User: What shape does this take?
Amino acid sequence: MTNLAAIFLSAMLVNNFTLVLFLGLCPFLGVSAKVGTALRMGAANVFVLTVTSLTASFLNAYVLVHAPYLRLISFIVVIASLVQIVEMAVKKLSPTLFRELGIFLPLITTNCAILGLAIFQTNRSYGVWEGLAFALGAGAGLTLALVLMASIRERIELSDVPSVARNMGIVLILAGSLSLAFMGFAGLLTS
Amino acid sequence: MSPRVTSPSEDFVRGIWRENPVLVQLLGLCPALAVTNSVANALAMGLATFFVLMGSSLLVSSAKRIIPGEVRISAYILIIATFVTIADMTLAAVVPEIHKALGAFIALIVVNCMILGRQEAFASKRPVGRAALDAAGTGIGFIIALTMIGAIREVLGNGTFLGVPLFGPDFAPWIVMILPPGGFFTMGVLLLGFAWWEERGEEPVKPRGWRVPVTRQASEAAIPAGSAGATGGER
Assistant: This one.
């Protein structure tokens, strides 16, 4: 149990997918303008991450032992179909959210965080439960980073930013500062 | 991008500078920041991505008539994943140390939005030769951007360039530059530098947010003051 908690905390804080490992930067920079949208994008990511982790465990245990060179291809096919399902569900259940997320919803497919999770999980030979803890931690970390960034950007809207930094410049510098703050978690877990 | 008529040289040059995938379009940022803590890693990543981009552009462009429109994205991703698997296995066999340093990021070339973007925007609509030119330009642009970020981070963070020490023994390396925050900072400062460069070239007729009419000299004097850290982007 402590092992699972350690995996969760490590994925969420110490090795935060976005701010420390640079995974999933596109949505981090793209949909972090409003806190509400960021939160829902995070939730969509948590869902896709969890299901991907379960599927990857299954594939690793039963299919890919026979054909390890198909790993990448089978993972990406699974992720693409999952995202398609999530997209249809969101379109049906919440058209507003569907419009807000726009192009970034189908782009979850090409979100490196999702494929990265499946690959890391395989490289570290996690079992089903460890994989699940890893996915939830990674999802929580992604959501945390998105929400933190969105909160800062909502504030920035009101401040007088030099015109050269209006675009992405200021956002990247902010991301750097956030990342610097997350480096402070580095001593949290010794393993 | 609209499928307007372009000359072959334009197809090639465009990706290198004016529409540089990383520095201008902000595509493929994950690998651009994650593996650029040394020039060697950045170059290896750039070359691997170049190979995958070139291979998939050629294949997509040749097969564009037999890929059905509805499943084209999935087809592109499968083609890309195939080339990435080849690159992954080749690197593991030929240069195991670099393969180890890049870790999962070789496999993650599959989800580099830059590659998928070129297939959708260019290779799927143009003849094979043009697709190859476009892939070459974009790939070289990617290598340039990665090497640039890698050079800044390695020189400042480690005091070396490709492993060769540049400064005397008294140099205290800026450790933060090779840690993750350094990636964000370098990229941010580069973007500030480019924004400043572009703004400098324009006539400062209506700088947004400024009420007082400004002369050219005044605006030029004022802008660098607002971006004192932007000097890193001038190279």
